[in-house]
Amino acid sequence: MLPSGCEDCRHLFELVKAPVSAVQDFSVLAGRAIRNVVRQPHYADDIFIQMDLIGVGSLPIVIMTGFFSGAVMAMQMAKALAQYGAVGQTGQVVAITLVRELGPVLTALMVAGRTASGIASELGSMKVTEQIDAMRALGTDPIQKLVTPRLIATCVVLPLLTVIADFLGIFGGFIIAHFVLMLASSQYWSTAWQALTYTDVFFGLLKPFVFAFAIVLVGCHYGLRTTGGTQGVGRATTQAVVVSSVLIFFLTFFITRIYVSL
């Protein structure tokens, strides 16, 4: 029988072992996926297929999210700005808030809910049916074939989806400002345009590029670690969505902190 001190150490080791192992596996996966970007072979067909599935497939939800986010924001901001007689600055507030923060974050969350879950379920199904083991037996690197194309595709399409969401959000704010608040079109668009700087646009596009890494790598990580049959696939899918969403908020806080410091 082990002394109580040794027993406590063993329990502590068991508690720490799982998260440390997960972080280690995630780091190895991320390193190999990024390294494979500059290594042969490049599965161009898979990249374009994933760009279609992730980018074009996410367009409807991104369009709706962006438009109604801008519309709701215009209504809320106009009510607050009316207290100071600054309703004319609605376009400025909507543009800055969408381009800096809400546009990238909401777009990434929508794509994460759709893409991270899809990647985790797809790779998880391949894992439990031993298709990935068969791929290794045939001499194909699963990370090169399955992870890197999804990473490249998402890094390309997520900033583009963010641009679409930002524009439609500003347009949704214009609809409310013009037809509900009775602001002149020139006043809304001039204040929205003049409020944005190159730094705002740069960080507004940097965020979705970084978010793409989090979404794809988290989805692939949980998909490739799936065990336990169909129940394991469902569990991996849920974990991928939750972790990628939390990671998006953490990353946007970190990037915003850098932006504020500059």
Largest sheet: none
| CA-based gyration radius | 22 Å
Number of helices: 8
Oligomer: single chain
- Strand and helix order: HHHHHHHH
Question: What structural class do helix, strand and pairing data support?
Answer: mainly alpha
Termini separation: 59 Å
Q: Kindly state the mean pLDDT as a whole number?
A: 87
Query: What global shape is seen?
Result: elongated
**Total E-strand runs:** 0
Number of domains: 1
Low-confidence stretches: none
Helix content: over 70%
As a percent range, the share of strand residues is under 5%
Describe this entry's structure for a reader:
Helices cover 86% and strands 0% of the residues. It has helices spanning 4-35, 44-82, 90-128, 131-137, 142-179, 185-195, 198-224, 229-261. It has 262 residues and is mostly helical. The protein has one domain (44-261).
